[in-house]
C-alpha cells in the first residue's frame, strides 16, 4: 500500500537497473592543452597513466563528525563514494561536480557521467571547458553510509545526517586534492593508475563548478554562500532554497493548471469524502474507503481483478488519511509531467465520465450532484492506470534518510491550503499529522518541528549570491520555495538572463536565472535521452525530461555564457 503523503516528492526516481559495461578507461594523452585558470604550466602526467574509469566507484575516507569529533559505535570515519570521468580533462580545466543528493548515485553513472543514453550537461561542460567530471554521493545514501540505514538506525547514529555535515563533506573532499602543479612521478610507472587526489584540483588552484537539480541545487546555492572559496560557480536547477514547514504551496501550481470543470469536481469530491469520513455513519465511511481502495487497485477496461481480494475489513482498517489521499493519486507525477501529460488524461476521463458523456463547464457535479461526480471520479481513477506506476519506495534506506532530513530540517510538509476553498487535498493531511509521522519514525533527537533556520540562515529566497544560475520550471511545485517563487509570502524577485559580472551578487529584486515557460521540475538538467524501448515510461523520468528537450539546450547555453564570463576571473 502506498502512503502518498510519505512519498519523497523531491526524489528523482531512479528505478532503472544499471549495467556496467564500460570497463576500459581511456589512456591519458601525452600532450596537454595550454593550461588556464591559475594552473602553472608545469603540470604534466606521465604518458599512459590513467585515472580510474568512471564506472568504478572511488571512495574517500570522510570524518563522521566535522565539527566536534564525536564517535558513535566506534565509527569516526566512513567511506564516501564518488565517480570521476576524466575523458575530457586537460591540465588546468575546471571541476564539474554533479551532486546526486538524496538518492543512491549509482544508477546515475551511465546517464550523467558517461552519456551512455544521451547527452548530459555535466559531460558537455567538461568537454567544452576541458574539465574533469565528478559524480558525488551524499552521506547516508547509496553506499556512503556511516551506519546501516533501517528502522533500527539509532538517534545517535542519525545525528550526523545534517545539512551542515553534508555540506562540509564537499569542502573536505575538495580540500583533499593537491595544490601542487605537478604530480610526483616517482611512484608511477607508465601503466599505473594514479590517485585522483594527486591531481591539482584543490579549489584554491582550480575552479569548482557545481551542478545540481532539486535538493542538490539547494546544496549548490548553500555551498556558494557558505564556502565561496570552495564552490566557484553553480547551476542550481529547481532549487527550493527556502525551507518552510508548511508547504501548502506544493499543490498550488497543479490547482492553478486545472480546467474549470475538473477543478469543480475535484473540489466537490474531496469535500464529500472528507465529510463522510468525519461523519457519524460508520458503515458509510467504510463503504467509501472500500470504493476508493477498489478504484486504486483496478485497471483499465473495467478490469477489477486487482481488487479481487479486497474486503470491507481491510477498508475498515485503512486510516481516513490513507483513504482520502487516494483522491490525490493523479497528482503524483505532476511535478515531472505537468498538466498536459499527467492531469489532463485524468480530467478527460472524469469530465466525460469515462468517455460516455460530453463535458460541461460546471463539471459533473453541476449535472449529477456530488455523488455522481464521485462515481465519475472513481471510474477515472480505475481507468487511469496509476497502479502500474511504481509508487512504493524503491530505495527504502534512501527514503528513510530523506525523511530524517525533512523531519529535522526542511519541513516541506505538503498539505492543502487550509484557507483556500478550491483546494483539492484532503483536510486530513495536516501539519500535525506530518509531524506525528516524523515523531513515530524517529523516536528521539528530533526537534519538535523542523529547524528550517538551519537552511534559511543562508538567505533562503532572499539569497543575494554571485556566480549562481537559478533555473526553474513555470509549473514546478518546487518553484514555490525558490528565488522565482510567486507565492504571496515570497519576495517576488524576477529572474534575469543577463549574465552578471563575476562575483557580483544579485539584489533584492532580481537574480540571475531563467524560468522556463510551461516546464516542471528540473526540466533542464536531465539527460538528453536517445529514446529507446527502455525509456518510454514513468520509470525513467528521473533521467530525462518527458515534457521537452528544449530546456536542456537553453539551460546549458545560458550557463555556458555565464561560465565564459566568470571562469576567466578565477583566482584574480
Ligand atoms: C578533531 O580531530 C582532529 C584530528 O585529531 C583535530 O585536528 C581537530 O582539531 C579536532 N576538531 C575538533 C573540533 O575538536
Ligand atoms: C566519459 O564520458 C564520455 C562521454 O561524455 C564517454 O564517452 C566515456 O566513455 C566516459 N568515460 C568513462 C571512463 O566512462
Ligand atoms: C607499474 O606499477 C604497477 C602498480 O604499482 C605494478 O603492478 C607494475 O608491475 C608496474 N609495472 C612496471 C613495468 O614497472
Ligand atoms: C470497523 O472496525 C471496528 C473495530 O474493529 C469495529 O468496531 C466496527 O464495527 C467495524 N465497522 C464496520 C462497518 O465494519
Ligand atoms: C449510513 O450509510 C449507509 C450507506 O453506507 C446507509 O445505507 C445508511 O442508511 C446510513 N445510515 C444512516 C443512519 O444514515
Ligand atoms: C470505461 O470504459 C471502457 C470502454 O468503454 C469500459 O471497458 C470500462 O469498463 C469503463 N470503466 C469503468 C470503470 O466504468
Ligand atoms: C487485469 O488486471 C490484472 C492485474 O490486476 C492483470 O494481471 C490482468 O492481466 C488484467 N487483465 C487484462 C485483460 O488486462
Ligand atoms: C472540461 O474539462 C475537460 C478536461 O479537463 C476539458 O478538455 C474541457 O474543455 C472542459 N469543458 C468545458 C465545457 O469546460
Ligand atoms: C469559495 O469562496 C468564494 C469566496 O469566499 C465563494 O464565492 C465560492 O463560492 C467558494 N467556492 C466553493 C467551491 O466553495
Ligand atoms: C538589481 O539588479 C538588476 C540587474 O542587474 C538591475 O537592473 C536593477 O536595477 C537592480 N535593482 C536595484 C534595486 O539595485
Ligand atoms: C534495454 O535494457 C536491457 C537490459 O539492460 C538491454 O539488454 C537492452 O539492450 C536495452 N535496450 C535498448 C534498446 O537499449
Ligand atoms: C610534487 C610536489 O611538489 N609535491 C608536494 C605537494 O605539496 C605537498 C604539501 O602541500 C608536499 O608535501 C609535496 O611534496
UniProtKB/TrEMBL annotation:
<keyword id="KW-0378">Hydrolase</keyword>
<dbReference type="GO" id="GO:0006508">
    <property type="term" value="P:proteolysis"/>
</dbReference>
<dbReference type="Pfam" id="PF05577">
    <property type="entry name" value="Peptidase_S28"/>
</dbReference>
<feature type="signal peptide">
    <location>
        <begin position="1"/>
        <end position="23"/>
    </location>
</feature>
<protein>
    <recommendedName>
        <fullName>Peptidase S28</fullName>
    </recommendedName>
</protein>
<keyword id="KW-0645">Protease</keyword>
<dbReference type="InterPro" id="IPR008758">
    <property type="entry name" value="Peptidase_S28"/>
</dbReference>
<comment type="similarity">
    <text>Belongs to the peptidase S28 family.</text>
</comment>
<keyword id="KW-0732">Signal</keyword>
<dbReference type="GO" id="GO:0070008">
    <property type="term" value="F:serine-type exopeptidase activity"/>
</dbReference>
<keyword id="KW-0325">Glycoprotein</keyword>
<dbReference type="GO" id="GO:0008239">
    <property type="term" value="F:dipeptidyl-peptidase activity"/>
</dbReference>
<dbReference type="InterPro" id="IPR029058">
    <property type="entry name" value="AB_hydrolase_fold"/>
</dbReference>
Amino acid at each position: 500500500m502506498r502512503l502518498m503523503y510519505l512519498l519523497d516528492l523531491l526524489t528523482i526516481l531512479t528505478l532503472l537497473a544499471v549495467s556496467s559495461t564500460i570497463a576500459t578507461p581511456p589512456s591519458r594523452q601525452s600532450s596537454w592543452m595550454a593550461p588556464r585558470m591559475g594552473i602553472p604550466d608545469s603540470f604534466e602526467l606521465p604518458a599512459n597513466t590513467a585515472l580510474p574509469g568512471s564506472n568504478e566507484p572511488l571512495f574517500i575516507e570522510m570524518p563522521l563528525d566535522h565539527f566536534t569529533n564525536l564517535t558513535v559505535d566506534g565509527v569516526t570515519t566512513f567511506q564516501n563514494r564518488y565517480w570521476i570521468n576524466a575523458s575530457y580533462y586537460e591540465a588546468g580545466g575546471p571541476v564539474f561536480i554533479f551532486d546526486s543528493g538524496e538518492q543512491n548515485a549509482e544508477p546515475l553513472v551511465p546517464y550523467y557521467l558517461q552519456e551512455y543514453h544521451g547527452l548530459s550537461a555535466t559531460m558537455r561542460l567538461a568537454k567544452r571547458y576541458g574539465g574533469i567530471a565528478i559524480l558525488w554521493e551524499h552521506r547516508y545514501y547509496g553506499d556512503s553510509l556511516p551506519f546501516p540505514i533501517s528502522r533500527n538506525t539509532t538517534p545517535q547514529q542519525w545525528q550526523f545526517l545534517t545539512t551542515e555535515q553534508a555540506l562540509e563533506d564537499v569542502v573536505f573532499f575538495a580540500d583533499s586534492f593537491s595544490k601542487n602543479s605537478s604530480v610526483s612521478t616517482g611512484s608511477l610507472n607508465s601503466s599505473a593508475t594514479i590517485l585522483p587526489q594527486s591531481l591539482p584540483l584543490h579549489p584554491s588552484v582550480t575552479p569548482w563548478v557545481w551542478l545540481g537539480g532539486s535538493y542538490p541545487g539547494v546544496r549548490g546555492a548553500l555551498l556558494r554562500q557558505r564556502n565561496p572559496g570552495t564552490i566557484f560557480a553553480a547551476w542550481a536547477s529547481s532549487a527550493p532554497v527556502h525551507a518552510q514547514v508548511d508547504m501548502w504551496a506544493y499543490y498550488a501550481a497543479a490547482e492553478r493548471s486545472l480546467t474549470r470543470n475538473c477543478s469543480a469536481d475535484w473540489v466537490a469530491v474531496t469535500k464529500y469524502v472528507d465529510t463522510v469520513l468525519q461523519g457519524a455513519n460508520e458503515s458509510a465511511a467504510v463503504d467509501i474507503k472500500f470504493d476508493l481502495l477498489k478504484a486504486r487497485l483496478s485497471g483499465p477496461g473495467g478490469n477489477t481483478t486487482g481488487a479481487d481480494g479486497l474486503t470491507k475489513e481491510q477498508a475498515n482498517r485503512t486510516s481516513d488519511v490513507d483513504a482520502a489521499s487516494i483522491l490525490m493519486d493523479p497528482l503524483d507525477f505532476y511535478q515531472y509531467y505537468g498538466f498536459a501529460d499527467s492531469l489532463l488524461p485524468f480530467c478527460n476521463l472524469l469530465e466525460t465520465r469515462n468517455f460516455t458523456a460530453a463535458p460541461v463547464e460546471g463539471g459533473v457535479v453541476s449535472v449529477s450532484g456530488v455523488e455522481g461526480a464521485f462515481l465519475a471520479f472513481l471510474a477515472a481513477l480505475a481507468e487511469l492506470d496509476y497502479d502500474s506506476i511504481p509508487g512504493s519506495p524503491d530505495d527504502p534506506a534512501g527514503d528513510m534518510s530523506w525523511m530524517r532530513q525533512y523531519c529535522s530540517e526542511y519541513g516541506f510538509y505538503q498539505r492543502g491550503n487550509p484557507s483556500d476553498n478550491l483546494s483539492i487535498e484532503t483536510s486530513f493531511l495536516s501539519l500535525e499529522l506530518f509531524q506525528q509521522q516524523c515523531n513515530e519514525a524517529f523516536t528521539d533527537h528530533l526537534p519538535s518541528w523542523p529547524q528550517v533556520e538551519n537552511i534559511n540562515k543562508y538567505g533562503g529566497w532572499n539569497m543575494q549570491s554571485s556566480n549562481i544560475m537559478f533555473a526553474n520550471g513555470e509549473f514546478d511545485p518546487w518553484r514555490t520555495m525558490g528565488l522565482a517563487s510567486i507565492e504571496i509570502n515570497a519576495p517576488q524577485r524576477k529572474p534575469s538572463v543577463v549574465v552578471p559580472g563575476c562575483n557580483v551578487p544579485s539584489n533584492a529584486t532580481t537574480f540571475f536565472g531563467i524560468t522556463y515557460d510551461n516546464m516542471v521540475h528540473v526540466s533542464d538538467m536531465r539527460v538528453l535521452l536517445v529514446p529507446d524501448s527502455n525509456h518510454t515510461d514513468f520509470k525513467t523520468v528521473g533521467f530525462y525530461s518527458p515534457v521537452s528537450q528544449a530546456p536542456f539546450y537553453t539551460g546549458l547555453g545560458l550557463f555556458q555564457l555565464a561560465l565564459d564570463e566568470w571562469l576567466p576571473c578565477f583566482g584574480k
